[in-house]
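Think of the structure tokens as a kind of shorthand, similar to the way a musician reads notation: each symbol stands for something richer, in this case the local conformation of the backbone. In the example below we present two proteins back to back. Begin with the first one, reading the sequence and then the tokens, and try to describe in your own words what changes along the chain.
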Amino acid sequence: MGKARFLVRGANIGLAAVLVASGLASGGTAQAQSIEPTVSIDEADAAIIVTARRREERLIDVPIAVTSFSGAQLEKAGAIDLTDIGLTTPNVTLETSRGTNSTLSAFIRGIGQQDPVSGFEQGVGIYLDDVYLNRPQAAVLDIYDVERIEVLRGPQGTLYGRNTIGGAVKYVTKPLPEEFSLKVKGSYGSYDQADGVVTASAPIGSIVRVGASLARLSRGGFGKNLTTGLDNYNKDVWGARGTLEVGGHGAPVEIRISGDYTKDKSNPRGGHRLIPGLVSGTPVLSDVYDSEGALNDPKQDVEAYGLSMNVTADLGAGFTLRSISGWRKDDSASPIDFDALAAVDVDVPAYYRNEQVSQEFQLLYDNGGPLTGLIGAYYLSAKADTQFDVRLFTSDPILLPGLTAFTQADVDTDTYAIFGDFTFKFTEQLSLSAGGRYTWDKRSAYILRQNYLGGGSPVFGGIGLPLGAPGTDFDGSRKFNKFTPRVSVSYQPSRDHNIYASYSQGFKGGGFDPRGVGVNAPDLNRDGVLEDSEIAAYLSFRPETVDSYEVGYKGNLLDGALYVALAAFRMDYKDVQIPGSSGCVVNGVPTFCGVITNAGKARFQGLELETTARLGRDLAMAGDRITFSGSLGYIDAKYKEYVTQVPGQGPVDVADFRKVQNTPKWTGSGTFTYAAPLADGEISLSSTVSYRSKTYQFEIPNPYIDQKGYALWDASLVYTAPDNRWSLGLHGRNLLDKQYKTSGYTFLDADPVTGALRTAPNGNLIPTLGKEGTLTAFYGSPRQVFVTATYNF
């Protein structure tokens, strides 16, 4: 629920890292709260105003758990892409999805989605200039020309167009200045990193402004694909943004039209095998960034682009009308080699094609009285089309040559919503906020599953022959409606303290498993015939709901030298839907199947702390200062009910043996910053350590692929010239070169209750898909050191 606006008066401040959601100065003037600040927290010339509830308020007044990062902060910290902000935000995981370069996997307070299949809405909403991105493909947004990025924890719906059950991440690009501007930024570093961004804008007359950015972002690989010879984990991206603004800057009407384009030609990202080949005996590679997968057709290629138009009109008498229109499209070609070996075994060439149109209207009211609020309406129409092969060897390639399971899933979403949220101040100390949302979701799906013998499907240039009838040939739709409320109460004994409590409900519509196999549906009425209704029931999954409770405190202490924001939360999560995949049998043929598990119930409860402290100033010289900023997150995430079908036993509750994925119990970070005047400019030295405790990659614990707790150390040294004319920075990321897993694939036999991996009599693990055994991992970035130079003309 947040859109932060940073108002800077007087001093040139250029914040440098994480702005804590609640950093305000005493006496009504916000002070800079940051993980890596270039100013002390007591410079009263810096005023931070947020519009978290779609109106301007001091951040301390807002009863919402939100962390915000300014563009200047991110630039000073050397942030590269959207995943970087997850390191210093409590109870948040933002990672590049397994086997891809640009698909985002996002989790907030235990809620998210790792498997980016087309039939599922994300648990965490991603917004680009207030336009909701319906799919996670192409959502690992590179950081350039950014005004701010905000992370909102907990369900969002009464103030935002799209209902998101776990939280939201908002990426907001910079507005255009009123005068001519030209900025050039370049970076060069390890692994042949070479980035360049050129940004220019100019006024046309008195009310029209135009601007554009062009970015070239490149880097060599962290490792090699030893089969294809290609760099592994490399980067090859072109990006561009353009903006037209009319009015604004005090005019009653402001129109902002923006467009963006991204072309990602990076090589396919290959996984690292954690076990030797079970048939070939291929050993585990010594370098975790190396791979041996041979699949490189189709060529990795991601193209994403979109347009948006934001219109704001002051209607007078305290009323403001806003319109947010968006259109987006992205196409991805991805060769994913699951087992990371040269053999054609569990090779998955895939196409993802997404398109969406959205429209949002808001009518806001604020006439300076005790009542403020808004009402809104939202519409989204989205298409997510996916095609992929799963190519397998068989045990006897002469009698039964290679098998391919081809899947085509076209999933359409149409959603309408009306929402509202109002706040009434009974006194200067006590206020009540209440809101609600009604959502109408319609999910339509066409799903085709066809096995091929002797080669791949024709879609990917294969010459395989159809093997039997389709395993799925389904066309259907379902509707899901839900009202979700929100209420909060806030008590402020003084302007520097806020105690609040809130309740909100989140909702995510159901749908159809885009990889499901219809012929495996149970014959519910036992008449010997699979009816359309039985197939629909088998392929469909239920909507999810969450009840979220939160209490919090935000306060300025010690005359503004210490800021503390503390929140405690509990979330009761019902009908948790978990997409997955496994080896299975279809029409007597061993192949690949999608699996949707209704995990039933989960409970998440925990604490979040964000703080900033002024440790000293005027120490070695006049004007220098030392500050500390930190964050700490704790979450007790537990399944209360997790029912699965166990052969020979029927439905069994296995909650005691399941874990919540991508949700470490502890997250934390701390940054010390020393800043001092130098040659009429400023030099800033900052050092950040971030920590994440043990992370489970899947609901079933896996000793090979799960990541034990680890810490990362980053540091930056930045000099900023007078008047911010130019800057020069040296940045180090993961300076201790820690190797840590972020995701992976596993297709190995396990006990259906405990999840313990089973072994054959010879001691080998037992594959359930393919013959070599799939157990591969993907890793976070190794140590990177780079310099960045910026010049403003």
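Once you have a description of the first chain, move to the second and do the same.
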Amino acid sequence: MTSQTTSQFAKPRIDVRALLGLYDPADTTDWGPIRAAQMNAGSQLALFMLAANVIGAALITLAFAPTVPLWQLASWSALVAAVGAAVAFRRLAVRHRTERTATIKDVRETVLDGIALGAVWSIAPLLFGPSASAEAAAALWIIVSILMAASAVAMAALPLATIAFLAVLGGSAAISLALTTSPALGAASLVFTALLSIGCFTRGKALVVIRASEIALAERDETVSLLLREFEDKGSDWLWETDAQRRVVRANPRFAVSLGVDPKAINGMPFLQVLAGTAWESGNFAQGLREMAERLKKREPFRDLLLPVYVDGVERWWEMTGSPRFNEEGGFLGFRGVGSDVTEARESANKISRMARFDTLTGLPNRLLINETLALAMGEAEKWGSRCAFMMIDLDRFKAVNDTLGHPVGDRLLMRVSERLKQLMTTNDVIGRLGGDEFAVVVRDATDSAAVERLAHTIIGVLSQPYEVDQHTLYIGASVGLAIGPRDGRTAEMLIRSADLALYRSKDAGGGVFHAYEPELHVQAEERRVLEMALRAALENDEFHLLYQPVVRAGSGALMGFEALLRWTHPEFGNISPAKFVPLAEEARLIAPIGEWVLRAACVEAVRWDDPIRIAVNVSPEQLHNPGFASFVAAALRDSGLRPDRLELEVTESVFMREGTAAVRTLEAILDMGVRLSLDDFGTGYSSLGYLSRTRFSSIKVDRSFIQGASKGSKEAIAIIRAVVALADSLGMATTAEGVETEDEHRMVQALGCTKVQGYYFGRPLPVVEARSLATRDSQGGASVAA
């Protein structure tokens, strides 16, 4: 709380509406502790008022027992006890919550207590009064008067609730007296009620004034202690002092030395002029100096106020703390305080803070600052019952830019991305870079869910526009995962995890899209985690096996070889699809050891077959980018005894995207051994025509999607197959049609010029025993593989 002057603390100005809880003033007074004092004072006498209500109801029951049916009296007494108990325990229940601070809502809600108690007590004069005897009427009036007076005194700390109780009960008593006795007595009852209300308000105001004065005194003590402590702890600091006209008095030598002036020269000079230096004449003051001038003018204490001071033309930063001084009569004497030069500390702190919280490449907030911002947004959302949002952004195809054009171009591209993101942000949003090509957005107020989704779509659209970087036109995209707090996570960490799962789904869908978090994503993530743990143990537990799919000569159907296909049978989960575990193995970086097992097992089996049947094995890009892979292939051939020309490695076009890596050199070393090389899934990914001419492929495999399209009459698919066949023929390569499932498809690919065929029409993947039998029979007898 910003303190007021001592004279104001002596006679605080209390806003009547604020006292009653009808208004929350926007002045410098912190009403939270004052309202807490009101609530605590009310709770301290809650049990006393409950006892008063119960005893009063019992006395009225005794007084009216001869004239009023007992069931009516009992019902009313029970109602009084129930409402009184509810009010008492309600006030006791909020005691701990409002021990230090309370809101205006807490005070306002007490008026319902007063109205409820007044209403149940009004039943007695209105219902029982008309039929009462003189003695009972007198007893009723005395008990009601005592109860009203006790409430006005005991519950004065909550004047709004107490006045409401007095108004309701006093009004009903006045009506009863006016109707049954005389209007004069009714008027007297109203006057009595008014006097009690005034007394209640006056006493309540006095309690608030006392509490406000206590708070002010505590703050003054804290300020004085701070000044003394700072002066004692910081021997390099200095004291400063001004008179009532804000002129320097008794200039401290250390203060003068820090300014580079003689102490006698600044005595009597305006304090602000001394600090402003050459800027005094121009009036071009720093904001810190303006704030100090305002505090000095209002005679308000200040603490740790930063302002720039020029000493011999060099800017220094001073930290100033000051407090007003008053004499015993309350007269203002001036200010006294301490100051210190914090230039080096400030520069170091700023540098450290920026390095710790901002990304050095883009200048955006980094992961630490984003996490702090999200935590604050989560706290505000929880406090006000609103929502915040967290978006994770991942750039699509950025890795290809880094691999092909290099990291410097990638870094400049990231800077362009950050510039576009900055232009989309408002005061409600904070954008940051988490690392690599991942960015994040914190939306502080996400109550408008449609606006948040529009922002996500806008980010994707803006980031997908082409970039001009170093004379390169680059096309990338963006995927976005969104989570809403606190719905999708009660903490910042949980919300980030939810957004990450949503982003994973966006990437899994092919990128360039936006997904919001859904609860089942956690279930899927847990399934992936369990499956990954099982996959890590699969090799050791001998859970993998190979199936072999025949590859035949187009037309004759003669067996030319097999493609080794990996399968996984888990003892608990059963057969797991390669479409499910192969991407997981690549993501978990397990594909290399698994691929080595496949190659070794396939070579050991193929050596049992008769010539010239070959074995084809798929090789992942990660294996080829390992410089030691060629040596492993040589060892697998040597250990198994398989001739190199009977081994064919199948690679995809993506292996050539990382230019300048060891992949091409590894392939050349493998080809030099005599191993054959086949290009798999040609035409479905990146253009590799240059690599076709430079790399010694023995065959090209036409993807099954083109075969299926051609069988349905797709002119584009037919044209692609013809182009691939013509390209392969010109380069002296064979062509293998994948996914041939019918006789018509077989005749079609044969007519289009494909030399080899693979698919269910000629055989499904076979277990090792059946494949071995077929390989032996076919090589010995020359039989063809028939559907």
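Compare your description with these statements about the second chain. The two ends are 88 Å apart (CA to CA).
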